[in-house]
Amino acid sequence: MNSNAAHGFIYEVAVRKPNGTLTQRERVKNLTPVEGLNHFSSVVFKSGLQVAAWYIGLFEGNYTPTDDVKAATIAALASECTAYGSAQRVAFVPGAVANGSVDNSVSKAEFVMTAAKTVYGGFIVSASPKGATTGVLVSAVRFTSPKVLAIGDVLVVVAANSLVSA
Questions:
Q1: Distances, alpha carbon 130 to alpha carbons 59, 63, 93, 151, 159, in Å
Q2: How far apart are CA 119 and CA 140, in angstroms?
Q3: What is this structure's pTM?
Q4: 122: three-class secondary structure by DSSP
Q5: Helix, strand, coil shares, percent, the chain, to 5
Q6: Which of 27, 89, 156, 165 is deepest in the core (most CB within 10 A)?
C-alpha cells in the first residue's frame, strides 16, 4: 500500500569563509532510506525504541545515496569526512515542532574544516563517533554541487524534517 504522505529532510547548506563571508549556498532535498522509514514507523506505531540524540555527518566520496544505505554502511560507502574540529559528528539539535516540521535553525550544525576537502553530501544518524557503523540512519543527501572547502572554512548545515500530507 502506498501513502500520499511525504517524509524527508530539506538541507540548507552554506560555506562561511574565515572572514565571515557566506558562499556556496544551496537548498536540497534528502533521501530517507528504508532504515529511517522503518525507524519512524516503529517508534510511532509499534513502541519502537526512541533515539535520544541525532548527529549530522559529512561525506567526501563521489557517492549518491540509495534506499538501502544504512548506518552500518554510510561511512564506508560514502567516504565519511572527518576533517573538522569536532571530536565527533555534530549534534542535530531540533527546535520546536510546528506544522509537521522540525529543524535545527536555532542551533545550526557547523563544521570547522581542519583540512582542505571537497564535500559531496551529508547524513543524519543516531551514532555520534566519526566513522561509526552502529545506530540508525534517517537521512542522506547528495549536495547539488560539491562544497570545496579550505582549512578554516565552516560548512553550515540546517536540516528540516517534514511530514506532509498530500
A1: 11, 18, 17, 19, 19
A2: 13
A3: 0.93
A4: strand
A5: 10, 45, 45
A6: 89
